[in-house]
Amino acid sequence: MADEITRRKFLERGIGVMAGAVTIGIGGVALTSIGAPAVTNKLEGKWVEAGSASDLAPDKFNPVGLVYESKDGWMEGKSKMLAYVKVSGENILALSATCSHLGCNVNIDDSTGGFKCPCHTGVYDAAGKNISGPPPKPLKKLEAKIEDGKLMINTMPKEEA
Amino acid sequence: MEKNKEKKQMLFYPDFLFREAVAAVIVVAAILAVTLIWPMKVGDPADPSDTSFKPRPEWYFMAPFYLLKIVPSSLEIIPTVILPPLLFAALIALPFVDRDTERSPKKRPLAMALMAAMVLLTAAFTLLGILS
Amino acid sequence: MLGRIIDVFDRRLKFKEDFKKNVLDHPVPQRINLTYCFGGISFLLYMLLAATGIAMIFFYVPSVDHAFVTVEYITFDLPLGNILRGIHHWSANIMIVVLFLHMLRVYVYGAYKNPREFNWITGVVLFAFVLAFGFTGYLLPWDQKAYWATKVGVLMPQSAPVAGPFISKLLMGGDQLGALTISRFYAVHVAVLPIITVVFLVGHFLMIRRTGIAEPL
Ligand code: HEM
Ligand code: FES
């Protein structure tokens, strides 16, 4: 009798262990591959030519659309982003238009020379610093230079303005 | 008195299902009507470099959207991370917190007041979000 | 005719009587009012969404290059496509309203109380699934409102301590809202959510069958 019960227990546990191991193993493989791109699918910075420097109005922000080749998972194609570029003499200030709050593109606010965000009314000053509303940080600065009269911008933000 | 009222019953099939079928036909007709009155359109293709578009969520996400807008950045985490799970946890916990077996709404003033407050708040935030 | 075919099976498999006893003849309170139909209407809307959704899968392609044009095709070129998409759109929006009313009815009548706690909990989970359907479906046309609303949505968890940025990347499938985002939203919208929703629906219905609809007050 006692023998019969332990045999039954053994079988029951065995079913549990086998079913559990297969579920965890296969489920783990599936879930890991689903989650993996969060770590592996990195966006890489690129230097992009963004038109000729003489087209930019001096001493004020100009919206500059950047189109660049990028790899996103399986897809190799064009990505787009927006930068605001201000050239004052030798200095170039290029800011990413992406709001530091939740990623909307900010607009130039003509009355202040700064920016405001259409999503949750975030406001930035002319240096890209967040001054009111939800944004927790300044706009991100982009590396920019002028080579042979051409404006070059790096798509990967380097630091906060 | 209330307790002695006879518990009259009908059958799921066909009594109850007939009523459901009538309601279903009305709903399907209504959906077809709105579909024909307001044909579907498409917007402009997604453009990450555009600034002319004013981003807005679906109307049923307007209430959290409006909260995002009015909460200062130091309290940001409340509408984004804390409130949504908390609301769902509260809903799930409800039957275990409210263990009183009284079911009549007339005898549950606190529960009714809470509900009215939640519904009004959600409606108000949704409206403010849509108007903003 | 249909009855004859069923009888052919029933003579061998004997399911008719059980089905009649357990499903069809189930007693329902007589004094129920209109508010009791919201659950059934939600289920009807779910079926409409499934039917029109599956039809659109035949044409829609979830990629950054094709999503918009395939939705355009469904909307303007495909015969009855506009109606197909319209029914899907309106059913989805009406379902939110009807579910809300269903929940309110259950709440007002105290129908979530013992022994129906788990009917309520499966209901709350279903409500969360329906919101997730709405969020993932909104991205699929890949138009301006889809892109920007989703961007704000996926970045919301970012403000959570420690895991926040990782959760956002998990939702996007990488650093940007792009090719992998649209394919994973599509997978969740047309495969993951429909399946887990059906599982919870079956649970919801079985529990209602067991406990019965709460006696009207
Ligand atoms: C896909 C979503 C849902 C469907 C298809 C659905 C369907 C149904 C149906 C057909 C009934 C029978 C009675 C009636 O129609 O009122 C019912 C009852 C019930 N539902 Fe839902 N439901 C859904 C979501 C929910 C939600 C969001 C809740 C609440 C959070 C909920 C809680 C309940 C409870 C507690 C009952 C029992 C009510 C009683 O006994 O009077 N359900 N549901
Ligand atoms: S995204 Fe700019 S304020 Fe929220």
- The parts of chain A where pLDDT drops under 50 for at least 5 residues are none
Multimeric state of these chains? Answer: heterotrimer
Bound molecules: protoporphyrin IX containing FE, FE2/S2 (inorganic) cluster
- CATH class label of the largest domain in chain A: Mainly Beta
Note the main sheet of chain A.
5 strands, antiparallel
DSSP strand tally of chain C:
1
Which descriptors apply to this entry?
heterotrimer; A: 161 residues; alpha+beta; Rieske Iron-sulfur Protein; 2 domains; 12 strands; C: 217 residues; Cytochrome Bc1 Complex, Chain C; 9 helices; binds protoporphyrin IX containing FE; binds FE2/S2 (inorganic) cluster
Describe the protein.
The complex is a heterotrimer of chains A (about 160), B (about 130) and C (about 220). Chain A is of the alpha+beta class and about 160 residues long. Chain A is built from two helices and twelve strands. In chain A, the strands form three sheets. In chain A, strands 2-3-4-9-12 form a five-stranded antiparallel β-sheet, with no helix packed on it. The longest helix of chain A has about 35 residues. The radius of gyration of chain B is 22 Å and the shape is flat. Chain B has two domains: about 30 residues; about 70 residues, no CATH class. Chain B is mainly alpha-helical. Chain B starts with 8 loop residues before the first strand and ends with a helix. The longest helix of chain C has about 35 residues. Chain C starts with a helix and ends in a 6-residue tail after the last helix. At the B-C interface, strand 1, helix 1, helix 3 and helix 4 of B face strand 1, helix 3, helix 4, helix 5 and helix 6 of C. Strand 1 of chain B pairs antiparallel with strand 1 of chain C.
List the helices and strands and how they pair.
The complex is a heterotrimer of chains A (161), B (132) and C (217).
Chain A: H1 2-35, H2 37-40, E1 47-52, E2 62-72, E3 75-88, E4 91-96, E5 107-109, E6 114-116, E7 123-124, E8 130-132, E9 140-142, E10 144-147, E11 150-154, E12 159-160
Chain B: E1 9-11, H1 12-37, H2 62-70, H3 77-97, H4 109-131
Helix pairs in contact in B: 2-4
Chain C: H1 2-13, H2 16-24, E1 27-29, H3 38-57, H4 67-77, H5 81-108, H6 117-139, H7 144-155, H8 164-172, H9 179-211
Helix pairs in contact in C: 3-5, 4-5, 5-6, 6-7, 6-9
The complex binds protoporphyrin IX containing FE (HEM) and FE2/S2 (inorganic) cluster.
